Amino acid sequence: MNLHEYQAKQLFARYGLPAPVGYACTTPREAEEAASKIGAGPWVVKCQVHAGGRGKAGGVKVVNSKEDIRAFAENWLGKRLVTYQTDANGQPVNQILVEAATDIAKELYLGAVVDRSSRRVVFMASTEGGVEIEKVAEETPHLIHKVALDPLTGPMPYQGRELAFKLGLEGKLVQQFTKIFMGLATIFLERDLALIEINPLVITKQGDLICLDGKLGADGNALFRQPDLREMRDQSQEDPREAQAAQWELELRCAGR
Fold it and tell me: What cellular component terms from Gene Ontology apply here (predicted)?
């Protein structure tokens, strides 16, 4: 079960991880009001769908006026966004996220998955932020650095520092990266996740790390232990057959001939 970016960032905030100030909005008026709450622009507006490639499809935009925010909301809310990760019908846009724009100096990648072969949670970090990690793995695998969590000890700060050094980070950025690493690992384990990803994790021009994007995938078999995550489920983003099966705690499979 996937979460929206704004939901992922809500979880990040609960665990003390840095992310831009933002609000999920369902109407153009809410979007304009969100900009007023955030303060002076520029702002970033993002369609909230369970798919990557939003930027290239026009679903992410930097804007300088509230009129542009309203126009973006009117253009996308209630429509469907088609990206390279969706089918031809696309995904419905029911919310847009309005955030303060971030001055970016460098983009990194940090994420984790369950490695079925080793039966451990494996973290991956790369200097190639903003690029699909699958593409990095295929074209420049040496730029992906990994650490596996020991199921007995859990995440250790030295592992975060090890990744930070491999990314070429220095000074306070090592400390900030280690805090983010430990926070993500804690979220992953406490929330029964199957995937967590910050792409990009950016270094701002002020010299700080911030989680500019967030992607979370929960283990559907463990949702009975995570009632708050279950409440975040957006069935409009799922195949109707799978959504109906999930209501009865069933798994949809295709039978072969």
Answer: cytosol; succinate-CoA ligase complex
Lateral strand order in the sheet of 96-100:
22-25, 96-100, 43-47, 60-63
Name residue 218's beta-bridge partners.
193
- Region of 16 please: left (phi>0), alpha (psi -120 to 50) or beta: left
Query: For residue 141, is the peptide bond before it cis, meaning its omega torsion is within 30 degrees of 0?
Result: no
Please, are residues 107 and 135 in contact by the beta-carbon 8 Å criterion?
no
Percent share of the chain, pLDDT over 90: 88
Which segments of 13-93 are extended strands (E)? 22-25, 43-47, 60-63, 80-81, 91-92
CA atoms of 217 and 195, how far apart (whole Å): 5
Q: Average per-residue pLDDT in the chain? A: 93
Name the pTM for this structure.
Answer: 0.89
Model confidence pLDDT, tens digit, residues 29-54: 999 999 999 999 899 999 999 998 99
Please state, in angstroms and rounded to a whole number, the distance separating the CA atoms of residues 104 and 210. Answer: 10
In order of their start, the domains of the chain are 21-100 (3.30.1490.20), 104-218 (3.30.470.20)
What is the spatial distance between Cα 85 and Cα 47, in angstroms, rounded to a whole number? 14
State the pLDDT confidence band at 247, using cuts at 50, 70 and 90.
Answer: low
> Residue 199: exposed, middle, or buried by beta-carbon count in 10 A (0-12, 13-18, 19+)?
buried
